[in-house]
Specification:
It contains 2 helices and 8 strands, in the order E-E-H-E-E-E-E-H-E-E. It is α/β, with parallel strands linked by helices and 126 residues long. It has one domain: Gyrase A, domain 2 (2-Layer Sandwich), CATH 3.30.1360. The longest helix is centred in the first third of the chain and has 10 residues.
C-alpha cells in the first residue's frame, strides 16, 4: 500500500493482493520508521467499517486509519471504478481522502510494476 500526503489530502493506493487481503481480513497496514526508537514510527492503515458508513479517518498518535464501508469496498474491488473519495470536515478546513487502485506505470520497468492493476492506458503513446 502506498501513502501520499499532499497539502490537506491523503491518498492510499492498493495493489491487487492488498485489496484481496483487505477484503479477507478487514484491515491492512504499513509502518514507516524514522529513527531507531519504537515510538519513531507512523502506521497507516485501511480498515473496513460497517456498511453505510462514509469514507472517514481515525487518527491516533502514530496511527492514521482510513475507514471504508465494507459493501462499498466490495463493489469497488469487483468493478471498474478506480477510486473512492471523500472529505473529512475539520472545522475551518477539510481533509480530502482518496483510496484507489494502484495501476502499473506505463513508463517504468516491470520490476516497479509488480502487484499493480493493468493500466488502462498501456500501449498508448503520449
Amino acid at each position: 500500500m502506498k501513502l501520499r500526503i499532499h497539502k490537506n489530502s491523503l491518498r492510499l493506493r492498493l495493489g491487487p493482493s492488498e485489496l484481496e487481503r483487505l477484503l479477507d481480513t478487514g484491515r491492512i497496514e504499513e509502518s514507516i520508521r524514522f529513527a531507531p526508537e519504537e515510538t519513531a514510527r507512523l502506521t497507516y492503515a485501511l480498515e473496513l467499517a460497517p456498511s453505510g458508513q462514509d469514507l472517514c479517518l481515525r487518527y491516533r498518535r502514530q496511527d492514521v486509519t482510513v475507514l471504508l464501508a465494507r459493501d462499498e469496498a466490495r463493489r469497488w474491488a469487483e468493478g471498474e471504478q478506480v477510486g473512492i473519495s471523500g472529505e473529512v470536515d475539520l472545522g475551518q478546513v477539510k481533509l480530502e481522502l482518496l483510496v484507489e487502485k494502484d495501476f502499473a506505470c506505463v513508463d517504468r520497468k516491470d520490476a516497479r510494476n509488480q502487484d499493480t492493476f493493468p493500466n488502462p492506458k498501456a500501449g498508448e503513446t503520449c
